[in-house]
UniProtKB/TrEMBL annotation:
Matches recorded under Gene3D superfamilies: Jelly Rolls (2.60.120.10)
Molecular function via GO: dioxygenase activity
The keyword Oxidoreductase is annotated on this UniProt entry: yes
Assigned keywords, A-Z: Dioxygenase, Oxidoreductase
Domain Cupin type-2: 104-172
Organism name: Tahibacter aquaticus
Pfam family membership, one: Cupin_2
Name this protein carries in UniProt: Quercetin dioxygenase-like cupin family protein
Keyword Glycoprotein included in the entry's annotation: no
Matching InterPro entries: Cupin_2, OryJ/VirC-like, RmlC-like_jellyroll, RmlC_Cupin_sf
């Protein structure tokens, strides 16, 4: 056994030989646990495990998801971003966090009226079609199944551009005792 290494947990199989506890085991062809070595003749070669090591490395280097797809769980990422749809970086407010989720329904042709949100918010369109317009004329349209990162501290108006009732599921990532929506002062 190499000096300075703990005794192998499974000495009968010759596991955890060279590279035990080293992060570079896969890169240098050392695979821990290793099956097949001079310590365990007659078993599979480590060359067969190199592709497995490469797949494990690839699998662990992909983006994080909350759950993995399984035979009984289907995970479908809808949106991942560091900015709202107008390109403004998302910043969470300081202070004690409070998350609020609301359902919002807007009649055909109805509008929210001009407003802004001081906190990041995310809208999932459950039914219908939504158009969000900014004061500068830019707009974004989303339909059922799509998610919109709302603009933060930017005046905007939401309008139902579909034929039926627009149904939204909106989540606000704010702080305790902070307003979620701000209306313009009367007369503006």
């Amino acid at each position: 056994m190499a000096a300075g290494l703990p005794p192998p947990p499974f000495p009968q199989a010759g596991l955890f030989r060279r590279g035990f506890g080293r992060a570079d085991g896969c890169r240098r062809g050392r695979i821990a646990p290793t099956i097949g070595s001079e310590n365990s003749p007659g078993t599979r070669s480590t060359a067969l495990l190199r592709p497995v090591c490469a797949l494990l490395l690839l699998a662990t280097s992909t983006g994080a998801v909350a759950l993995d797809n399984t035979s009984s769980v289907k995970v479908t990422p809808l949106l991942k971003s560091t900015t709202s749809w107008d390109g403004t970086p998302l910043v969470y407010p300081a202070g004690p966090a409070e998350v609020s989720t609301l359902t919002i329904e807007i009649a055909p042709g109805g509008e929210t009226g001009w407003h802004k949100h001081p906190v990041p918010s995310f809208a999932l369109v459950l039914e219908g079609a939504l158009e969000v317009r900014l004061k500068d004329g830019r707009s974004r349209r989303v339909t059922a199944g799509q998610v919109l990162y709302e603009v933060v501290d930017t005046w905007h108006n939401g309008r139902n551009v579909g034929e039926g009732t627009l149904k939204l599921l909106v989540t606000y990532a704010g702080r305790q005792d902070q307003a979620l929506t701000i209306r313009p002062p009367a007369g503006e």
